[in-house]
Amino acid sequence: MIDGLHQRIRALHVTLWTLIVPPATWASHFLFSYLWAAVHCAKTGHFADEPAVFWTGTGLAAIVIVASGWIALVQARKPGDHPPHNEGTEIDRLRFLAYATLLLAGLSVVGVAFTALPVLFIDNCR
Amino acid sequence: MALALSGCNRRQSTFATFGEEAAAIDHLALVMTIGAVAVAIGVAALMIWAMRARPGALSLRGGERLILIAGGLLPVLLLLVLLGYSLPVMRPRAVAPADMRIDVTGEQFWWRVGYAPPGGNPVTTANEIRVPVGRTVLFRLRGADVIHSFWIPGLAGKMDMIPGRTNELVVRAVRPGLFRGQCTEFCGLSHALMAFDVVAMEPDAFERWLASQRQPAAATAPATAHVGAALFSRYGCGGCHTVRGTGQDGAIGPDLTHVGGRRTIAAGALPNGEEAIAHFIRYPARTKPGVRMPAFPHMSEADAHAIARYLGDLR
Ligand SMILES: [Cu+2]
């Protein structure tokens, strides 16, 4: 089954748009965190005892990033064209974009985690 | 260096702390600086090594591993540790309903101060803040006209005072003494002259002081003995200033009920004294450009001094 999935993933058409999925998710999560804290504090006047909504959103962001990172990993491992060739090929392009996406996914996971830490450590509206 | 810097100014310095919050910030700055210096030295060492290494000193794999570890994992771990250390420091201490609340409003270019002790009547003063040592105090900070920023470097971090909002700052002083705070958000011509004295006192002394501030001026100074009181009323000072117990109840400028007991006048701009007050009330803009108090150039020198003596007696 995983093999079939790998096949399907490798056949995906990769563009610059897929590359920005992890950082865009990170950015959305960042905005979400601020909005969530601001709205919650303004409405209830104190910090949430059980920030379920926040952790759901954070989990969702993590899933999206990890999934796109995994897809990128599979694509980056696609075997290259046999030599000799003098110019970049379609597969080179795919592997390059996939590798860049993978690195960005790594960065974005760390970003989301660091953004979420204050909820754990500060949990305060002041 | 911290010692050298704090040697310059023990009254208003982030290095000469008298509150737990500022002490935590001081400590945090030290840890962060050590961390930053360690990283800088590490990076510089790597760079020197890279410049001196002969070509091929690292295999392709080895190079990739170096980048992954030194460029990825190590920074993430290091930042995680520093973040894990700094975030709890940023967490404000808890406030109990029985804790002292002090309302401070930043106005161009002075501070309106109100003490709201739990279970007691509120007390209004200005341009001087006193806090009890060893007690948690909640500052409720507001802006009246433009954005100001409230900072007592020795006590805690700074907090903006924004019109239409109430920002809260929780502090605990640990050492009695005389300190200083300053507005730290540019708010107009006399922004730099918008400061205040801070007095940290033992709780008993603080309670006594607060009780005396609650008294109307009439109870402490025999208003009748002063021509100054009559002049104060005649020049219309009461349209803007309150002197409790005398019928003067303007609320535009600082409460002057106990102005004689402050160390400075005009938000730290001048040392308190007859000469300074007499000068300030005639030409306030000479001391503070853009000040919101009108000049009284027609006031005679003698009248100014009479008023100043009267105000000086309001302790
Ligand atoms: Cu100001």
TrEMBL record, chain B:
PROSITE patterns: COX2, COX2_CUA, CYTC. Subunits I and II form the functional core of the enzyme complex. Electrons originating in cytochrome c are transferred via heme a and Cu(A) to the binuclear center formed by heme a3 and Cu(B). It catalyses: 4 Fe(II)-[cytochrome c] + O2 + 8 H(+)(in) = 4 Fe(III)-[cytochrome c] + 2 H2O + 4 H(+)(out). It is found in: Membrane. GO terms for biological process: ATP synthesis coupled electron transport. Residues 97-212 form the Cytochrome oxidase subunit II copper A binding domain. GO terms for cellular component: membrane. It is a multi-pass membrane protein. PANTHER family: CYTOCHROME C OXIDASE SUBUNIT 2, CYTOCHROME C OXIDASE, SUBUNIT II. Keywords: Copper, Electron transport, Heme, Iron, Membrane, Metal-binding, Oxidoreductase, Respiratory chain, Transmembrane, Transmembrane helix, Transport. The chain crosses the membrane at residues 28-50, 66-87. Gene3D superfamilies: Cupredoxins - blue copper proteins (2.60.40.420). Belongs to the cytochrome c oxidase subunit 2 family. Pfam families: COX2, Cytochrom_C. Residues 223-315 form the Cytochrome c domain. The keyword Protein transport does not apply. InterPro entries: CcO_II, CcO_II-like_C, Copper_CuA, Cupredoxin, CuRO_CcO_Caa3_II, Cyt_c-like_dom, Cyt_c-like_dom_sf, Cyt_c_oxidase_su2. One of its GO terms (molecular function) is copper ion binding. This is Cytochrome aa3 subunit 2.
